[in-house]
Amino acid sequence: MDDLCSSDGRLIIEGLVQPDGSQTRRTVIASIYLIIACISIPICVFDCLAFCRRPHINQSCYKLLAITAALDALNLINNALIPGILSALNVTPCNGGYWTVYFGFYHI
């Protein structure tokens, strides 16, 4: 973790220490991610439930739509909700541990 963090606990990205005062930017980014998640996840879940109803699920096209909607909801949880929460709580590889490094590399 020494190569990712400065001595005062700030994140180093591309060799540059991130400046102080990024609180506002972090809050805005967290808000955007959480708003997208709060709007999109219920829509995906509703779509998945609508496609899984008894008369529709017997047709293969609705099965594919249901699978796609479920995977889309999981994708939104993984790529909007979790990063929004981590950004709101100011969790970085410097203070969050190795799992945040692995989570970040997984997204890249």
Automatic annotation (TrEMBL):
SUPFAM superfamilies: Family A G protein-coupled receptor-like
Transmembrane segments: 28-52, 64-86
Pfam families the UniProt entry points to: 7TM_GPCR_Srt (PF10321)
InterPro entries for the chain: 7TM_GPCR_serpentine_rcpt_Srt
Keywords annotated in UniProt: Membrane, Transmembrane, Transmembrane helix
Protein name (Swiss-Prot/TrEMBL): G_PROTEIN_RECEP_F1_2 domain-containing protein
Organism: Steinernema glaseri
